[in-house]
């Protein structure tokens, strides 16, 4: 019995010592802030940022009532502080973060401390409702501090955690207006209320605007740039214009701008006149629609249209959808990167059906010598339309140049023949002979002298030119 009693006493001392060690270990763990621990001396609204930072990262704990240096001060009214914290988190953060937060009162060193345990959220990124999905409203825990996220980081987190396409992810801007979209829908007698916006995927399951809504809104961040070059390369820049606003507004304004640059050339066969524009209007329309509907909007660059004397290029970011090759398009395979944007355009009768655009572009050039080109590289897709009139104009310019050269040679022959028959020729006689001005007459005589056919005698107005 004595040995059993001694054993129980030994075990009691063992557990007391062990507990003391655990308490010392726990206190030592609270001496410093780190990746998963944050101290607050008292409740302040900034606690919301810390909670967001932990929920957007690997989770962590905020202790209210502990000084930055780890000294435990405690809180006088833990129940009141906990209520204040819970109400603040419910009202100020979005999406709902409370399933991932637990607020308790714990005793540390004999004092009451409020403990806020935060686990990694499943609907990241979390943000301050009043600031929205931008760096001033989204935070993440890094090391022992909570920092604002960059816009690029926010976009990546949205894509990683949504498991959905870019167009269905939450828009970083929730203060959107839809004046252009409403006007276009009204013209087509299509109703656009909250229920229709949900059906069209402009509003997500969480009741927030999606990136599709951002594209169609007046606040659309993507722009379209049209550049006009002289000649056939980018060496000489003539003009550039950037179009902003709703993607629908850009579509209309860019098309009208290109239409002004799309010249018409008239040709005649007898009494019959034929007008032909540089670029088929159908091909321009389909190329522009293709560059807008199928591009990857997770890239922040602009849609590009480059216009040269001999061609027009439509450049869109993103390349082909993963799994497709360029030859797949010509086999009739179509898979839109933005099916919901395409569905909106289809409902608005801007496109007829999926996968028909390339065929329309090719048919527009069916009887023409030069054909449109479709090229893809990593992250980019380009459609090039040849200028149908440029080749004919180039041939006509070359013919005019040849005719001019023939005419000049004939005029020089007349001058030489006149000098042979009359022994010499003067500048004034050349002017009368070929009906030229003083400058041209002098230039032709100089060229004949340089060619060794004539020789100048005298100077100035008294100069004469004889056969050499």
Automatic annotation (TrEMBL):
InterPro entries from the UniProt entry: RecG_C_sf (IPR038475), Schlafen_AlbA_2_dom (IPR007421), Schlafen_AlbA_2_dom_sf (IPR038461), WH-like_DNA-bd_sf (IPR036388)
Name of a matching Pfam family: SLFN_AlbA_2
Domain Schlafen AlbA-2, first and last residues per copy: 33-150
Protein name: DNA binding domain-containing protein
Species for this entry: Fusicatenibacter faecihominis
């Amino acid at each position: 019995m004595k040995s059993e009693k001694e054993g129980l006493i030994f075990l009691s001392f063992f557990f007391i010592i062990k507990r003391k060690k655990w308490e010392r270990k726990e206190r030592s763990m609270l001496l410093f802030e780190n990746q998963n621990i944050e101290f607050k001396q008292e409740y302040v609204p900034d606690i919301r940022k810390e909670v967001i930072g932990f929920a957007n990262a690997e989770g962590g704990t905020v202790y209210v009532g502990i000084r930055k240096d780890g000294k435990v001060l405690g809180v006088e009214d833990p129940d009141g502080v906990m209520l204040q914290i819970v109400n603040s988190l419910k009202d100020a953060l979005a999406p709902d973060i409370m399933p991932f937060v637990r607020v308790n009162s714990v005793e540390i060193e004999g004092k009451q401390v409020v403990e806020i345990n935060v686990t990694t959220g499943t609907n990241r990124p979390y943000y301050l409702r009043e600031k929205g999905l931008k760096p001033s409203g989204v935070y993440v825990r890094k090391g022992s501090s909570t920092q604002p996220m960059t816009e690029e980081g926010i976009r990546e987190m949205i894509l990683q955690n949504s498991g959905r396409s870019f167009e269905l992810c939450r828009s970083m801007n929730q203060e959107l207006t839809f004046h252009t979209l409403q006007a276009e829908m009204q013209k087509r007698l299509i109703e656009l209320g909250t229920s229709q916006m949900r059906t069209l995927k402009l509003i997500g399951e969480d009741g927030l605007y999606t990136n599709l809504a951002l594209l169609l809104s007046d606040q659309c961040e993507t722009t379209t740039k049209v550049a006009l070059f002289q000649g056939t390369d980018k060496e000489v820049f003539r003009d550039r214009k950037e179009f902003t606003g709703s993607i629908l507004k850009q579509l209309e304004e860019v098309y009208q701008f290109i239409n002004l640059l799309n010249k018409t050339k008239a040709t005649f066969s007898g009494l019959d006149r034929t007008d032909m524009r540089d670029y088929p209007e159908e091909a321009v329309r389909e190329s522009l629609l293709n560059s807008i509907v199928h591009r990857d909007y997770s890239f922040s660059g602009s849609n590009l249209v480059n216009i040269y004397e001999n061609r027009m290029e439509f450049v869109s970011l993103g390349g082909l959808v993963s799994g497709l090759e360029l030859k797949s398009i010509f086999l009739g395979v179509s898979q839109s990167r933005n099916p919901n944007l395409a569905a909106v355009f289809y409902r608005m009768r801007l496109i007829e059906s999926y996968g028909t655009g390339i065929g329309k572009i090719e048919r527009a050039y069916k009887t023409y010598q030069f054909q449109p080109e479709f090229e893809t590289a990593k992250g980019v897709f380009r459609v090039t339309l040849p200028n149908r009139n440029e080749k004919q104009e180039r041939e006509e310019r070359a013919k005019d140049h040849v005719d001019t050269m023939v005419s000049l040679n004939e005029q020089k022959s007349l001058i030489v023949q006149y000098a042979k028959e009359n022994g010499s020729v003067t500048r004034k006689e050349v002017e009368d002979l070929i009906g030229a001005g003083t400058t041209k007459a002098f230039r032709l005589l100089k060229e004949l002298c340089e060619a060794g056919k004539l020789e100048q005698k005298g100077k100035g107005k008294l100069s004469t030119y004889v056969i050499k």
